[in-house]
Amino acid sequence: MTELRKQTDKQTVLEVEDLHTYFEIKKWGFLHEGYVRAVDGVDLEIEEGESVSLVGESGCGKSSLAKTILGIHSPREGKIKFRGKILDFDDEEIMKSYQGKTGFVQQDPYSALPPFMSIQRILEEPMIVNGIKDRSERISRIERVMQELKLTPTGDYLGKFPHMLSGGQQQRVVLARSLVLNPDLLLADEPVSMLDASVRVEILELIEKIQKERDLAVIYITHDLSTVRYFSSRILVMYGGMIVEKSPVVKLLKNPAHPYTMALLEAISEPDAANAERLKEVPPGEPPSLMDPPAGCRFHPRCRYLIDEVCRTEIPPEFEISQERSVSCWLYREGRQPEDVEL
Ligand SMILES: Nc1ncnc2c1ncn2[C@@H]1O[C@H](COP(=O)(O)OP(=O)(O)OP(=O)(O)O)[C@@H](O)[C@H]1O
């Protein structure tokens, strides 16, 4: 389904259509047991300079979606379009050039950085791999991103190795590495969850600054709803491999539409950083098994608003509930609007 978004003159960077990513599970390493349906029919779009947050409980498929978008996992079904062109996952040249246009920042900066390479070598590597042969060009790009990321004076860092830096500095190096090829899209997967509380805000502010200055499209993945309002304009809520609500952040925080979103918000009644991590505790009940997901709406076993005749058997489609908002929940069938539904 085409996404409901504010009309702008910006170009669409990424379109994901009906994406499915499954992982095969084998018993004793060879007997087919089934599939984990980590991503199961996701549509999303993001345009130049836009920041979108993807939120949901641990295990709902956020990282699998990010890694499929990045070409690390191959989708079982569906399309990914980058700047209007469908990606061919089997074409190595296309994928290499695409990966140069997409940056990735993961949770744990230390494991993301090769321990025996100096910071200079780490930052030069993507440019060498992508054929930037002119050394002075590489050095000037490194200088520029290090300035942007406040890794200064640069001479203090270039000869060091990752273990000599703090967690926050390591994450800034990871960010710098993801930017040296001037990407159009950055995926930040829980970029601050393993850092000390004191540097979390600083890193999020840096990502926001880079996003604005470079007009970069950013997908920010988190289980921590309390951080999204600081720099995202839109939010996508993921549950059981699917996206269940899409909304501008402010509207969603003020008036959640999906019962799952509502439960997430209840977990952070006072949205501030001190409440981070609490999302994992709610809503009550277990997240669905992605090997054997419930029929119908995947949230129905935990839902307070279950409608017996449909929720147990039919997957809800995306219902448009207002401009720029959609929700996959049977409460909004037949044109019902949030004001008709009491959550
Ligand atoms: N390479 C893999 N092989 C098999 N199963 C996998 C693989 N990667 C992820 N999964 C499974 O896919 C499901 C979704 O995992 P994923 O890491 O995408 O969720 P997540 O929302 O990012 O969670 P978290 O925040 O804990 O990382 C989980 O059941 C996970 O065990």
TrEMBL record:
Pfam families named among the record's database cross-references: ABC_tran, oligo_HPY
Protein name according to UniProt: Peptide/nickel transport system ATP-binding protein
Organism expressing this protein natively: Halarsenatibacter silvermanii
Molecular functions (GO terms): ATP binding; ATP hydrolysis activity
Database matches in PANTHER family: ABC TRANSPORTER, ATP-BINDING PROTEIN (PTHR43776:SF8), TRANSPORT ATP-BINDING PROTEIN (PTHR43776)
InterPro entries: AAA+_ATPase, ABC_transp_ATP-bind, ABC_transporter-like_ATP-bd, ABC_transporter-like_CS, Oligopep_ABC_C, P-loop_NTPase
A biological-process GO annotation: peptide transport
ABC transporter domain sequence ranges: 14-265
Protein's UniProt keywords contain Transport: yes
Keywords: ATP-binding, Nucleotide-binding, Transport
Lineage: Bacteria, Bacillati, Bacillota, Clostridia, Halanaerobiales
